[in-house]
Amino acid sequence: MSNLPSEPEFEQAYQELALTLEQSTLFQKNPEYRIALKVVSIPERVIQFRVCWEDDQGNLQVNRGYRIQFNSALGPYKGGLRLHPTVNLSILKFLGFEQIFKNALTGLMMGGGKGGSDFDPKGKSDNEIRRFCVAFMRELARYIGADTDVPAGDIGVGGREIGYMFGAYRRERNKFTGVLTGKGLAWGGSLIRPEATGYGLVYYVGHMLEYAGAGNWEGKRVAVSGSGNVAQYAALKAIELGATVVSLSDSKGSLVAVDGGFITPEDVHAIAELKIQRKALADYPARAGLKYLAGARPWTHVGKIDIALPSATQNEVNKEEAEYLVANGCKFIAEGSNMGCTLEAIEVFESQRKAKKGESIWYAPGKAANCGGVAVSGLEMSQNSQRLAWTAEEVDEKLKNIMKNAFYLGLNTAKEYVADGEGVYPSLVAGSNIAGFVKVAQAMQETGDWWTKTEA
């Protein structure tokens, strides 16, 4: 790829997948899958466009818009839209690449894609955000559809933005169709969708705890990063199940429990209100038992914990932080964010898993642990297709089953393709990568996206 510009985030995501495939017996048993890896690593389509919109002063503003339609072997492209000044092709390609295999692990008919813009919603008025969303969708509408590409929300895109975009699509295309997920309940949305990624993360870790003989969430001390939807609902569900949550964070700093304190549901709800107002965690009023640390991530400030749930953004746990978590007794780490841990951090966790066996930390990658959000997006698509609305209990039960199946699919695939010896926890990162890859590769082969020489 020397003729291409550097795309560090995408290259990291590719290397993580390729390394686990190489270190397993997959290519030994199925050498033809090397061809599939080459094919699946190139997007089917990369769309870039300009977005012109008017600010409140009547000035013309211009941003870049993107949609990466990465792979449609299993169904319509599916993946979120991110509005953030850091958005570029590398980040969106990494997210879209991860999305392919994450969606495969849900067992639902969804391909992988991602999109967004370098527009920064912070500091913008409601009218400016509406004008941007309408202008963005006016361009994006040419390339998406309920049976082609179904975007959802991501960082910077919540219910308000989805509403503006859905309305713009409806007017532009003269169709009322399930072209976006994360919609309002009155116009095609699904119950449990806002909670799904956080809840699903907790359900997934529950199976890790059970398999490891560590009981359930009761009494566990849990560090959570982030303070958006994923972190909020992961914290609330963990607290509901009996855990003690000791941190939340945002891009400017961390709120950490001190002197025997802990995060309460009331704290989470109040912080959620702050985030709706687009305020920082630093604006949360200080109280006894909690301390705000400017410019810090929580991992080296939470002391002894049982479970870590990185739920903010990519690469939020580095090697040194991983070593700190291990040294302070953390036994389970699962990504609520996409690619939350660096490759060096994952190596720390995986080397500990092999060396200390049942006494080690056990790591779960985001493509498995946080697939609950896109799973319920898939369930929203199903409800839209049937013109039905399921109850919260129905959706939650389906979510629990999807997370259980994703856990055991990764677990059993690791047992089949990774020889770690007796007494070692199966590698969930290897098992999830292999399981998702094989499912997509088989679909691509059977539909002619790639073939071996003897098949040609």
From TrEMBL:
Alphabetical list of Pfam families matching this protein: ELFV_dehydrog, ELFV_dehydrog_N
Cellular component GO terms held in the UniProt record: cytosol
Site feature: Important for catalysis: D154
Binding-site list for substrate: K78, Q99, K102, G153, S377
Binding site for NAD(+): T197, N229
Protein family membership: Belongs to the Glu/Leu/Phe/Val dehydrogenases family.
Reaction(s) catalysed (UniProt annotation): L-glutamate + NADP(+) + H2O = 2-oxoglutarate + NH4(+) + NADPH + H(+)
Glutamate/phenylalanine/leucine/valine/L-tryptophan dehydrogenase C-terminal domain mapped to chain residues: 190-448
Annotated CDD domains: NAD_bind_2_Glu_DH
GO biological process, one term: glutamate biosynthetic process
Organism: Podospora fimiseda
Gene Ontology terms, MF aspect: glutamate dehydrogenase (NADP+) activity; nucleotide binding
Protein name, per record: Glutamate dehydrogenase
Keyword NAD: yes
Residue positions of the active site: K114 (proton donor)
Assembly with partners or alone: Homohexamer.
Taxonomic superkingdom: Eukaryota
Keyword list, A-Z: Acetylation, NAD, NADP, Nucleotide-binding, Oxidoreductase
